[in-house]
Amino acid sequence: MERFQSKHTFWITVSRAFSFHSWLFCILLIMGIEAGGEAHAYIGPGAGFAFVGSFLALLSAAALALITFLWWPVRALIQGRRRRKLPGGRRSLRQQKVVVIGLDGLEPTIVEHFMNRGELPHFKNIQRKGGLYRLATSTPPESPVAWACFATGCNPGRHNVFDFLRKQPGTYLPGLSLAEVTPPGRFLTLGSYHIPLSAPRVQQLRKGKPFWSITGEYGVPTVVLRVPGTFPPDRIHGRMLSAMGVPDLRGTQGTFTLYASKPPECNPESGGVVVPVKPYNGVIQTTIAGPKLLARKGNSDASISMTIRPMDGKVEIHTQGQRFGVAPGQFTPWVHLQFPVGPGSRISGICRFYLQSLKPDLRLYMSPVNIDPEKPALPISHPSMYSEYLARVIGRYSTLGMCEDTWALNEGVLDGEAFLKQCYDLLEERRMMLFHELERFRHGVLTCIFDTPDRIQHMFWAEADMPDYGEIFGDLYRRLDHLLGQILGALDDNTLLMVLSDHGFQPFSRMVHLNRWLVHEELMSLSSEDDKSTFFHNVDWDGTSAFALGLAGIYINRAGREPHGIVPPWEVESIRDRIINGLTAWVDPATGLRPIRRIFRREEVYAGPYVETAPDLIVGCERGYRISWQTALGGMGKLSVEDNPKAWSGDHCVDPELVPGALLCNRPLKIARPRIIDIAPTILRQFGIPAPEAMDGTPLL
């Protein structure tokens, strides 16, 4: 789930430091030496920080610079040898240019609707040169799964991403599907500090080899901007900026803050924090919460003070020597923050404020505190200085994996107008990144993903005036068309351009509580009745044969696999048959419709070495239905199905046949029904690079 915040702590340490560095820092602490500067650290969802001073950072940087200088001639020689592997050698390489533009969630029927009305001339231009195609998505049609298929050319059984969430091995608890952080195994306690004596391991859980790694092996210059599932970034022959998976500075997937004189009732699982404030003599004194200090006993937050002063129809905000004003209905620019995390050490972050109202009640929104791209506290780009370089060129920008604050809109902390402004500000940031790279693009592969259509369609589908889709969607698709026009103007006729989406969209009006259905069918047993609990808090595992987790998965409580598994191997198929037959025949009493369209056994849709880590069953909902937020986190509602009350009213987590993506290409395809797994081998084919045998896709050109 896109706003999932891990229940468990993920850890942070300084760069790829050896244990020696931790020992040296302990010595510095004992000697009372305070090193100035800012710590550079790894972070994961639910993370806390362990830090070292700038002395070590300076020492490491100097050593790295020396190694880089000495290694450069060898690296240049290796790259030259790689390029000679290409048919035609360097001449062939310099003649090939591929640009891939991802428009997350672009719905092909809406594209066709506005094209037929003559409102998308640049979409139409690309269609005339090549074509507009329905692009078969992944199973399930979820962004991390689909973009992993895009990157690797493989089905999920080969790349190991099956949902937004995964079941953590040996437990019933959910974890994020894209990255995993293994904490340090040893600590040294000095007073109030716990000093890690070994480095944690930060790794992607996506398997398979993405096309950008393969092009790099052949010396093809490659730029990858904000493709989901690239945290931590891959080491490639080129440049990469990470996307989905990058946490905020608190280690979550995005925690907003609302400063309110009259606090609203926010859902505690909403991904936000409400801070009550009260003025004294016309001034409000409060704090901004930063990263968890897990290196310190008590797990306290690093925080900085902030003063809010209402005046002249606006508020003036003071923090860390900065002073800026914001009027109702306005966002501030990115504000730089520095959180003290230890003796002489600070962690940098950035945030934006939005003043929702001043009278009668103050409501001041603060975005999640993003990793500062100029002084990143974790690896968010390759090379590591690339994020800083971009910030110097285009200004500060959001680094959070999920930048658009959908949950703040869900909870009424942002209104629709503010959310749209946030979305289009972020679109402009991404556009500037892309065009900076296009200006110096001579040959190779350039890939950039824009999330805006996905976020806006999620949040405004219920407001779309069917069949004309309304002004919000019309404005969105016209803006995307204008963007494509600018891109076309920057390309020559020899450039292969592919514009694609990972999935389409459908309405989401009714939500399905799969775990409640399993209880009704006596396939799950409860120790107590609590419809608001998550993480299977009230499940009696000794009486449970199956459980649902994530936005599409059902697991059998297998004996020998699960901690309290009761289903022996010879009964697994009968349980799966019972669930499939029961769910596909089940009727929603409120509508008379069947919420579940199809259910797949994992071996029917997946092949490869990671099939055993997939859910036993993958659920494909009917149009208008989707698995509930509670189910995704191991919870259940009072009913098996109920209305969706959120602003989040459009979705794609349904039967994949209902939500194909769109593919526009400026050259005709040889395949009438392309799939998202076909994009990677198509890119490789353009450079004469053979696709690995593990790729399931087929070149389209």
Please describe the structure with a list of short key phrases separated by commas or semicolons.
701 residues; alpha+beta; Gyrase A, domain 2; 8-stranded mixed sheet; 4-stranded mixed sheet; 18 helices; 28% helix; globular
So what's the overall shape? globular
> What is the C-level CATH assignment of the domain at 510-657?
Alpha Beta
- End-to-end gap: 35 Å
Biggest β-sheet strands, sense, barrel: 8 strands, mixed
Mean pLDDT: 87
CA radius of gyration: 25 Å
Name of the CATH architecture of the domain at 510-657: 2-Layer Sandwich
Read across the widest sheet, the strand sequence of neighbours is 4-37-26-3-25-11-12-24
Q: Give me the number of helical elements.
A: 18
Q: Helix proportion of residues, in percent?
A: 25-40%
- What fraction of residues sit in β-strands? 15-25%
Indicate the low-confidence ranges by residue numbers. Answer: 1-58
Quick description:
28% of the residues lie in helices and 25% in strands. It has 701 residues and is of the alpha+beta class.
Molecular structure report:
The two termini are 35 Å apart. The strands form 11 sheets. The protein has an 8-stranded mixed beta sheet with strand order 4-37-26-3-25-11-12-24, with helices on both faces. With 701 residues, the chain is α+β, with helices and mostly antiparallel strands. Helix 11 (416-439) runs antiparallel to helix 12 and helix 12 (452-460) packs antiparallel against helix 13. Residues 1-58 have low confidence and may be disordered. It has 18 helices and 37 strands.
